[in-house]
Write a structure and sequence with these properties.
This protein has 11 helices and 15 strands. Helix content is 36%, strand content 20%. By secondary structure, it is α/β, with parallel strands linked by helices.
Length: 361
């Protein structure tokens, strides 16, 4: 019988992390009479003196609807590339062996890791070193392979949709083109679905490079029919057919480059063509706050399933949603190919059918 397990939240936060933690702790205690330890700030917790905390029923009480993570997140917490100061100089070192030692010292029989692409890649690397690891797919971007959905996505989608609804009324009053820049990195799921749900006229996503002239054709076509306003849902990773993605910050060996600014580029282009435009960047509002009922449900199902998987010894695997059912797949398969919007997805076809332009025709 499994007696001690650990849980950590890696990468950026997403609504539903606390719901997973709560479900995992409750399942571990109720079903397996097992002790649970929370590792703070991603993998970093193994390296810090106060980085490990016991998690019991008391610690998880009331956290189901809370956004963020009670364990803290660290999206630069890669044990294979940790930045430290040595003799006044910043260097990058590999501390993965220390993490493995930390896990052994705690006598953890399983480590449940909640994370996106980066965290899950690291999880697999640690599994190769013998760590009994289980992944839970988390990200508002919904870009992890092998699972239909990640928790956090539905909450971000609802916030983005509400933002588009609000932009609609002011766009109509002022006869403007309103651009909403949305998160998602290299995947356009948030912009695609929010654009459909929020009645956007143009959706720009990384998977479908656009032409500036096509955006204008759509805005003009609407204006000619008396619809003197337009709504554009623009993914932060979108790029024009002859251009590149727009970044607000360069990357380094710790941080990935930070996307941001394409909304402004599109808005400025529209203005130069004689149409008044305004740009809104929704940013971290998409990640903060309480998860939707759907995300609470998915997160709870994932958390309980991860503990059941640990009890079966299903290591180096990730819980996943397939055909509406929670199952599990190998971390290798989950991280092999990131999930992207496909041109033949029915959502893309449907968006075109209802008159939405992707700026590509
Ligand atoms: O991966 C989740 C995400 O919110 C992306 O959509 C976005 O590009 C990125 O994280 C922002 O990261 P940060 O919190 O470091 O600004």
């Amino acid at each position: 019988m499994m007696k001690r397990i650990g849980i950590l939240t890696g990468g950026s936060d997403a609504p539903g992390l606390n719901a997973v933690i709560r479900a995992a702790v409750k399942t571990a205690i109720n079903v397996y009479d097992c002790e649970v330890f929370g590792i703070r700030n991603g993998y970093d917790g193994f390296l810090e003196s106060d980085g490990v905390v016991p998690l019991g029923m008391e610690e998880v009480r009331g956290i189901l609807p809370r956004g963020g993570t009670i364990l803290g997140a660290a999206n630069r917490g890669n044990p294979y590339a940790r930045k430290v100061m040595r003799d006044g100089v910043e260097i990058t070192i590999d501390v993965s062996e220390e993490i493995v030692k930390g896990i052994k010292k705690l006598k953890l029989e399983a480590l449940i890791v909640l994370g996106g692409d980066g965290t899950l890649h690291i999880a697999h690397e640690l599994a190769l070193k013998g760590v009994p690891i289980i992944g839970v797919p988390k990200t508002i971007d919904n870009d992890i392979g092998g699972t239909e959905l990640t928790f956090g996505f539905d909450t971000a989608l609802n916030i983005a949709t509400e933002a588009l609804d609000r932009l609609h009324t002011t766009a109509e009053s002022h006869h403007r083109a309103m651009v909403l820049e949305l998160m998602g990195r290299d995947a356009g799921f948030i912009a695609l679905q929010a654009g459909i749900c929020g009645g956007a006229d143009v959706i720009l996503i990384p998977e479908i490079p656009f032409k500036f002239e096509s955006i204008m054709a759509k805005i003009r076509e609407r204006a000619e029919k008396g619809r003197k306003f337009s709504i554009l849902a623009v993914s932060e990773g979108a790029k024009s057919q002859d251009g590149v993605q727009v970044f607000s910050r360069e990357g380094d060996d710790i941080y990935v480059p930070r996307l941001g600014g394409i909304g402004q580029v599109v808005g400025e282009y529209i203005e130069k063509q004689g149409f008044e435009s305004r740009v809104t960047v929704l940013g971290h509002l998409q990640r903060g706050g309480t998860p939707t009922a759907f995300d609470r449900s998915l997160a709870t199902r994932f958390g309980a399933a991860a503990v059941r998987l640990a009890a079966r010894g299903g290591f180096d695997r990730m819980v996943a949603l397939q055909s509406g059912r929670v199952t599990d797949i190998s971390l290798v398969d989950a991280t092999a190919i990131p999930k992207r919007v496909k041109l033949e997805d029915d959502s893309v076809i449907t968006a075109r059918n209802v008159g939405i332009s992707f700026g590509d025709e």
